[in-house]
Amino acid sequence: MAEESARVKAEEAFAPETLEAAKKLLTKRFKFIKKPDESLKRLARLGVRRVAADMVANPHRYERLEAESPLPEVLPLDPLDILRHDHQLPALPQVFLELQQAISSRSNSANDLAEIISQDPGLTAFLLRMVNSAFYSLPMQIDTISRAVTVVGVNQLSTLAVGTSVMSLFKDVPADVINMEQFWKHSICCGLIARRLCRITGQGDPERAFVSGLLHDIGQLILLQVEPERATAVHAHARAKDVVLFAEEKALLGFDHATLGGMLLRKWNFPYILVSAVLEHHQPKAGHKEAEPLLVHCAETIATGLGVGSSGEFFVQPPSPEVWDSMHFTPELMDEMVEDLDEELEEAFSILIEQ
User: CA nearest 218: which of 181, 245, 184?
Assistant: First the structure.
């Protein structure tokens, strides 16, 4: 009863026309979810409130885009052609390569890792801000990388350092092609939700879950950076036809951004778990021994359902029933997943984007 009263009170805070517009948008966004369970229905209601608030704060984001007429032709593409041209891909910094070697080596120590990270003042400052934030909520102030490695853990901080350093590689994506602030808000939100879900369910590793969510749409950035006209044309087709973006990518290009992102991380020698989480975030394989691909798959559904940021995909992807059921979602758990999420997202966004 108290819960229903709180919901009604929250909805009364918005003008009727704003609330109606948000409900209409969410109904369309969930159109491919044919038989929602109670947790997905709760997600849609939470999405209505959040989108209504965003409509008031940022009305320009909800202006209708006119579809191009006629739609541009899109020729198929071999993803290997993109990955073979190293000069088109972001250049990996030396500290990134050394961190990769440290992760793959079983003999690395806390001091070894701290020495590598300390070569990059920007990465050092970023990791110290992250460790001292609510992301970890540690009871003490951490003022050196050596101490951070000791407290957080060698593998955990290595994963966080490598994953988040990728963000700085994508400075050249044209602003008129994609709103990078909204892209990273969606990606960070997906990472935070995957991390929360990891801790609630006891499945997977929190840092790996966060980085997997953070990088899940990296294939979009590669495509937009290397083939901006083709990528933009695919987005236009998906909007005009009201279809799921990754399905339209497969239809027009012959592959989707998840495949391209997974192939890129494999080329960069990322750990298998992170590669598979990115590769399968739309359609995870059955019987996974590792939890991260499943956590990111569910986190993507939740982040899109809430309308946090945008990677270019409008619709909520239908989650795999088997994977969704394995998380034992309930309406109450969905509430817990999004409680104080905006505050955590704002802090994480400020830390990651300022690095």
Answer: 184
